[in-house]
Structures are given as structure tokens and as C-alpha cells.
Amino acid sequence: MRNIFENGFGLVDGRKARLFTMEEGGLAVSVTDFGASLAGFAVTGLDGVRQNVVLGYGSAKGYALGSSFVGASVGRYAGRIGGAQFRIGGELYTLPKNDGQNHLHGGFSKRFWNAELIPNGVRFTLDSPAGDEGFPGCVRAAAEYELFPGVLRLTYRAVTDAPTHVSLTNHAYFNLAGGGGIGAHTLTVFSDAYAEAGPGLIPSGRFKPVRGSVIDLSRPTPLSRFTEDGRLAATRGLDHSFMLRGRLGTLRPAARLYSPETGLTLDVSTTQPSVHVYTAGFLGSDTAPKTQAFKGFSDHAGVCLETQHLPDSPNKPLFPGTLLLPGAELCEVTEYRLT
After folding, report:
1. CATH of the domain at 188
2. pTM for this one?
3. Would you call 171 a catalytic residue per the annotation?
4. Has residue 295 got a pLDDT over 70?
5. Number of domains in the chain
6. Does the active-site annotation cover 306?
7. Structural domain containing residue 48
8. How far lies 186's CA from each of 8, 69, 70, 231, in Å?
9. Fewer CB within 10 Å, N side or C side of the chain?
């Protein structure tokens, strides 16, 4: 068992939230049972100073009232579903339209998950009944945070009693410089193609080559290039899905984030088909109330590297499938290596 400490994390609707902090070597990871959220990811430098590399609210109340999915486990479906609907076997299922005319992420991030300690970390589980936000099937979801020397491993699992679509991811905002913006960070994404998107950021179903495009991340590129590019004004920077190289379901490189200000590097590997990169162009409008401890966020204060299935996959037959059947288990692993 790693060193794991439990503390209170404030109240949500009168219920006490719990914060679990795991320590291994120079890493410390904090996770909360509200939203199965990643609330802290810190490394201790040679000078003995601990630096956190993910954004957070400081208490469960911020996670409950914030609108930006900060650090949260999102589902039932990570990403957008066009028209907030899909069909299974000819039957139409309608979801809440919480992002214009589309459905985005779902409500898992605003719920308490059950927590239990496991040998290398913490497992959170959540039961989602049939009809939850319009989705068919009873689903049991799990988020397992495990800390190993130099590596945080996050495993998402899900089972169902009826055919349904499931895609789970973590929505952490990374900032390796400990504050300020992410413009000086460089990012590499190990992808040859991105999903072309149309109105409402719903994929067209077609892929376009990364190299030579306005969102070319095939080599280390300062994020300021995208946050300041007028051609990306509608999204205020990156809000794009990249199909990853390699065989689906195998753990392979997804992205490398580097801060020249601190010298820290974050390597992300995953079994998921894609990574959605969001440079937080709208983060400044987050709805969490400001407090003495939480001063609010600014636009481009962090970057999300959401390892997930592609948006609108339930309506795109050529995308990797997200239909989960009874008797099968969804199991997707993402590893974060901080050096």
C-alpha cells in the first residue's frame, strides 16, 4: 500500500467530500470522491519545493459549482454527441442538450462516487441507472487512480446490463509552470490525422492530415502559436481530436507536454483511440464562486489532454466503436509520467 492519507474536502449539499492523497517518491496525487476528480498532481524538485501541475478549486464546492469539468471523470460519454441523440438497433435515444443542440460529457462529474483503497491507490465506483440522462442500460463505472514510481496510472472500467454507448475520460487542466498561462509550453501529439469538425464542433466523419495543417502538433510546438492564431478564433485556440498512432487498445504514446520555464515534462500514454486537446480558451468564464483560496481561472491557464473515444462516435460508423454490450467490460488505461 502506498502512503495514502484521507482528509475532508468540504461539503456538497450537506454531504462531506473526501480527499485522498497518495505519495510515492517525489510525486503526490490528490483525488476526491466528488466527480472522481484529480484535484492535485505534484512533484517535489531537487530544491525540496513541491509544485502542482494541475488546476483545481481547493474544495469540493468548487467542483460542484464549476462549469469547466476541472479534473473530473466525465461520462457517460466523454465529448460531444451531435443532436444529443443516437440509435441502437433502430431505437432512438435522446439526451439532454447541454451544449447548444448537442450533448457534452454528461453528469458523472457532478456526483459522489463510492471510494475504496486498493493496493496502489484509490478506486471510485458509480452506478448509473437505465435512463440516466437518456442513456439505456444500467452501467457501473469505475475510475482507478494508482501511483507508481514516477507514474500516475488511471484506469476507467464500465459494465452494462443492456447495449449502450460509454466513453470515459479525465478532464484535468495541466500547467507545468505552476501558474500564469500555457503559451510557452510546447506540445507534441503522436498523431497523423485529426477529426474534421463542423458546426458545434461535431466531427464530419472525415479525417484530415496533421502535417501542414493549422493544428500541426507532430513536433514540439509552443501553444501560443494556437492560442494567438486568428484562424482558430472560433475555438480560441485548440479544441480538436487527434487519432493516435498504433494499434487500438494497446498502451502507446499520446502526447508530450514540456515547460521551458520549469523544465518539467509530462508524457501521456493511453490505450484510448484519440486525445482531445483543449487549450482552455473559455476557462475564464468558469462559474465556480471565487473565495479567499480560489481566485478564479483565466483563459489558457491550462491545457487538457483528454484521452478518449472520438466525439459523436455513436453516430459515426467509421469511428472506433463505443457500444458496450452485456458481458463485456470497457477497460481503458492512461498513464501520466512526470519528469
Report:
1. 2.70.98.10
2. 0.96
3. yes
4. yes
5. 1
6. yes
7. 3-338
8. 36, 23, 21, 19
9. N
